[in-house]
């Protein structure tokens, strides 16, 4: 742990960013509407207790504070400097800050790395100088940071005009200032405060990953919300997620640039790297971070995470004043992978004893009749929760949560129940007033006002409650030796077979006649493939014939194949034929690996044929994976039922063999990450008793990768 | 049109319901919090201009109004009577109403048809009596009706305590009072008024379908929102949707009970028929109604529909103050089937001339820099809209719509642009104030505050703008003759082939030896199937062998098959074997028909194999369908790319042949609706040059259906 000291230093520099004792603003303005005027106005409004030092060579006084012409003229130590100057003045200002002993810098200025190569070079220079000086730098092109806990406002966010931040347990780290502050404001609209806010802009130094790691150690923060466009340093991002996990702090992340369209827009609008959504999704899933897909999803997840009470499973109990809403929720349950198990008979009878017209299964429809004595809702909720064994409970109160008189009776009754079941998340869905919402929230309820989102919250709570599977390992025997040059299928089969992947018996022959003889020897129908180091997709050039039977037919097929391949791929070498027995039945999968430019080797599982090609029903995880993760990958496929169940009389496949193959491919990918760029077994035929790789492809890295 | 007069009478009775000149309340209470007290309190509050007649034998005065002991004692004509009495008094009260010449009745009382058979019988009795008297009846177990246009309040909705209705163009018809009033309140929270509200409860007489038809003729209503749990009369529902369509009034429907779980909950909580989600979805799609899946979706669709300006296509232009939100929207576009085509180069250059840092493609990121002169946003929007040829435009303004000074500049500039493009829907997404929202809305903008929902709205506008395909026809030659008794595959093939469905050549043989000879005669590999009138799913009992080649192999296979089938289905008759040439390549589909108990014959298209079995990738439409509808069905499949595109070098399939087969199956299903319960071609092999039915199943109705 030789690097502990610098890390501690970095952490303390980030403390200077979010809890500074003094703040200087370079380019401070007397106009509170101007970008250089906003932070001073905000600091004054917030009652910041430390020094505020406006720096402006043209004024002695800025917003009533004594200004200095240069930072060095301040003659006092400065923790945090904000640079709000034209782009061309930024480099000199950074040098001034370093010279003055500043510990952290926020640069608002735009027009640098997001514009052109010269801007990128300048960013790299100032970042290097800051690093050498032990100074942390946020930006440039950053909306900056603020914290209601420390009254720090090194930002020009317009969101703060409309909404003043209340203290809370959620920290926000966002590459985009607009998205971050929108998220902040959506939380504020729900009456939910934050601990810290930081928007990193061009990320010349401080990244969202740095902030995730920092917030993991922050006692005031219990949930971390992150927004990322491009991730440049994959391992740092993964390490940050693991740090947060180890600290018991849920991370909810929105990573944009998932679609091709989205990726294109990223590339054209920031200097960040994009297109790594597959890798980012994979590492988030592996690290137990929640990947949000929209702003409302992100904010819902943050709100759910902030309760600190997560679901142990996916069994949901619903108590509703509206049968219709109960049915609607039941309709939506499948989307979230939730089940609504029925109440035990005894509990159903007890519910009916209280409200005879109630439907007591689940959803428990207490009907609008309970309105005449609202405490009966609490009685029924008690029966349902005590008897149902639910992982999450949803209570739909329709309009009743706008009736304060009724709530005065109901909230204390439900709160007592809540205290008896502190480990079961409890969602109240109702049209409410802010006051009623806050009262419910103070008692540990999660409150919302839309049935679909209530069901979504139950799904989120189950996601948040799921511990990530254990990490995989890389055993020494997963290292393989690749021959130099490209590999044909035969070589790939040999390498993977030697590494423990199961292939059916096969024959490698030179001539069409030998192919016929080999087929006769095997008996039954065979698959016939061309052998060539130059052809990756054999079927595209007529290099695969399936289900050919009999020596003569196989010989003819081989001869025709050689001609067709020669015609379609005239430059490809032909090294003979591969003859394998025709296996049928089972489920065709694709198991492969790719090397993500940011996150390294990923292992992939997909379902074969059209499911991969058209529906892209595939799942990635960072390699290596544990058997538990491989199981999780199987379950994450849309068509996982094919692998998990016996479909239409066909016996279920051998899941252990499939899991072992996924694990092994992931180990080979990880152990040979410097040699193997891509690997693919397509198809892997999963059978009731075992499974076989029926094809093999290994693509080495174009050049050796530096260790 | 002999029934025109009664229909007119019905319509006028519904006018008495929603625009009565006088209202009596049976069971009127002096307590304004009691169900019988609420409508009188609401009518007084609303300033209802007609007579309010409390009926209560125990009081002379109710809430300051003179009460009568019985309805007949009123001595005045009464348009609408509200019955708020215990269940056991309802029947007598209805008789009193009829005797007094009431034209419409709303029954609040619960404890009737939703409870037991006796309640159902009572409901049927009173409904019949009302019908005979030309009186329309809402309920029982109904939350009732209200209308801000006519100050009519025949309801006990608690939603009205918190939110008073403003007049608007949206009419709400809901089986569930809670869902309907929740929808009403969600609209009201957005500042959107309604024309009428009606919750129908047990629907002894007036149904949601009746109300859809009624609102179609209401000049004050331009959008109809409907919530249905079970639909008892399919043709009436379809007719109502068509009436609304013909009147140019969009209908947005939430039909719950889609999931098995949901259907179970419906069955246990109302007396309505359920489980018809497939049929309901099919008829809604065919009639151009929008099927919402959640409350927010329903309300979003209603709000979008109320603008009256729909998208002509799916090309969306986005102008955004936040690049990140632009990327997020691009990520979400695919979910909605939207595209974000790039701006033409000239328009991109013009955008950059205004804001040099802008990214001008699409999303057009105007960056936060534009904040210094907001009218530049309008200039850029003008360039984008004039140059982009978009079907819908989204403008993301982040927090700026809370800044009234900025909006005073921007709204007039955008409004002028809006007036020049009145046919292009324009969505403003921003955190806003109610005032800013209303100002934008008054200029024809659709306003919301969450990026995912803004993209969803663009999708909704495209859905709402799509005209339904023309209806199908039933030609006389689609009528087939079924033999008596059950049909085996050979008979089904003959019937369908005679009706114009293409099958490959086949041989029907008695013995295994004949099967071998037939295969030899065909040449190549064959498929071999058992013939039996008693076996619907042959592969489940070993009755199918594919890809067998050679006379000897086929004979052996046939012999083994006969033994296996005899073992697995010992009671099934065996009538020999069907031998067909083995066709490969192409795409396997399933084309079939079912008879929906509510909506009649439906035609189904699915993708074969695992896609049908595991992913349930199927689409239904009411039979018969037009070729245009069949095309639409193909496009509606999740894996439609398989049928629409050339996948991995395989040429695209013959879509005309597939369309013709879907149309023909739908015609046969419709023409023989009284004879055929189900039909299935599984697989239909869609090939590049044509397509073939490879199997056929016809299931006659168990008993002849009365004409």
TrEMBL record, chains A, B:
GO molecular-function terms, A-Z: ATP binding; ligase activity
Classification via InterPro entries: ATP_grasp_subdomain_1, CoA-bd, NAD(P)-bd_dom_sf, Succ_CoA_lig_flav_dom, Succinyl-CoA_synth-like
Domain CoA-binding per the UniProt entry, residue ranges: 17-112
Native organism: Acuticoccus mangrovi
Keyword rRNA processing (UniProt): no
Keywords recorded for this protein, A-Z: Ligase, Tricarboxylic acid cycle
Family affiliation: In the N-terminal section; belongs to the acetate CoA ligase alpha subunit family.
Domain of life, per lineage: Bacteria
BP-aspect Gene Ontology terms: tricarboxylic acid cycle
Name listed for the protein in its UniProt record: Acetate--CoA ligase family protein
């Amino acid at each position: 742990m030789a690097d502990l000291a610098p890390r501690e230093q970095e952490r303390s520099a980030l403390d200077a960013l979010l809890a500074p004792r003094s703040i200087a603003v370079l380019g401070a303005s007397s106009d509170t509407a101007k970008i250089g005027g906003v932070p001073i106005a905000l600091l004054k409004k917030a009652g910041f207790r430390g020094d505020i030092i406006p720096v402006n060579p043209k004024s002695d006084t800025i917003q009533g504070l004594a200004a200095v012409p240069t930072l060095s003229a301040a003659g006092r130590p400065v923790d945090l400097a904000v640079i709000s100057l034209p782009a061309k003045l930024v480099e000199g200002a950074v040098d001034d800050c370093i010279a003055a002993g500043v510990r952290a810098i926020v640069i608002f200025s735009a027009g640098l790395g997001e514009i052109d190569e010269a801007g990128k070079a300048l960013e790299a220079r100032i970042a290097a100088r800051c690093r050498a000086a032990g100074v942390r730098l946020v930006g440039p092109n950053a909306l900056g940071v603020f914290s209601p806990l420390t009254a720090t406002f090194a930002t020009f966010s317009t969101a703060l005009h409309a909404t003043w931040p209340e203290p809370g347990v959620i920290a926000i780290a966002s590459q985009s200032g607009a998205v971050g502050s929108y998220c902040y404001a959506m939380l504020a609209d729900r009456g939910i405060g934050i601990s810290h806010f930081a928007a990193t802009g061009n990320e010349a130094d401080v990244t969202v990953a740095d902030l995730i790691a920092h917030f993991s150690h922050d006692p005031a923060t219990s949930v971390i919300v992150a927004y990322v466009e491009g991730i440049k340093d994959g391992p740092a991002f993964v390490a940050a997620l693991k740090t947060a996990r180890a600290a018991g702090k849920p991370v909810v992340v929105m990573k944009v640039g998932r679609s091709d369209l989205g990726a294109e827009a990223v590339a054209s609008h920031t200097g960040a790297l994009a297109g790594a959504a597959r890798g980012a999704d994979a590492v988030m899933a592996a690290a137990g971070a929640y990947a949000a897909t929209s702003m409302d999803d992100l904010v819902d997840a943050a709100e759910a995470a902030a309760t600190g009470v997560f679901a142990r499973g996916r069994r949901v109990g619903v108590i509703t004043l509206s049968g219709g809403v109960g049915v609607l929720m039941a309709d939506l349950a499948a989307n979230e992978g939730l089940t609504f198990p029925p109440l035990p008979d005894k509990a159903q009878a007890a519910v009916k004893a209280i409200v005879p017209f109630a439907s007591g299964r689940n959803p428990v429809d207490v009907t609008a009749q309970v309105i005449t004595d609202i405490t009966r809702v609490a009685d029924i909720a008690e029966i349902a929760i005590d008897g149902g064994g639910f992982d999450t409970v949803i209570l739909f109160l329709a309009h009743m949560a706008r009736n304060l008189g009724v709530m005065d009776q109901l909230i204390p009754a439900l709160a007592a129940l809540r205290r008896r079941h502190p480990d079961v998340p409890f969602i109240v869905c109702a049209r409410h007033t802010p006051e009623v919402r806050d009262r419910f929230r103070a008692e540990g309820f999660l409150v919302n006002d839309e049935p679909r989102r209530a069901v979504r919250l139950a799904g989120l709570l189950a996601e948040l409650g799921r511990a990530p599977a254990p990490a995989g390992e890389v055993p020494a025997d997963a290292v393989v030796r690749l021959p130099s040059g490209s590999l044909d299928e035969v070589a790939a089969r040999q390498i993977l077979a030697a590494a423990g992947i199961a292939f059916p018996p096969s024959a490698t022959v030179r001539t069409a006649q030998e192919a016929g003889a080999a087929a006769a020897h095997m008996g039954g129908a065979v698959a016939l493939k061309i052998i060539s180091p130059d052809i990756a997709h054999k079927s595209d050039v007529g290099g695969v014939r399936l289900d050919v039977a009999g020596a003569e037919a196989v010989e003819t097929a081989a001869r025709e194949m050689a001609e067709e391949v020669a015609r379609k791929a005239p430059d490809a070498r032909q090294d003979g034929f591969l003859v394998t027995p025709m296996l049928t039945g089972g489920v065709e999968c694709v198991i492969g690996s790719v090397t993500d430019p940011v996150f390294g080797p990923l292992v992939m599982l997909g379902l074969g044929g059209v499911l991969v090609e058209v529906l892209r029903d595939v799942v990635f995880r960072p390699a290596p994976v544990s058997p538990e993760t491989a199981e999780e990958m199987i379950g994450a496929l849309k068509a996982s039922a094919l692998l998990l169940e016996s479909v239409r009389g066909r016996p279920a496949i051998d899941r252990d063999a499939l899991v072992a193959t996924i694990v092994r491919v992931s180990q080979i990918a990880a152990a040979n990450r410097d040699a193997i760029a891509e690997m693919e077994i397509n198809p892997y035929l999963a059978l009731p008793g075992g499974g076989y790789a029926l094809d093999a492809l290994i693509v080495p890295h174009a050049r050796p990768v530096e260790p």
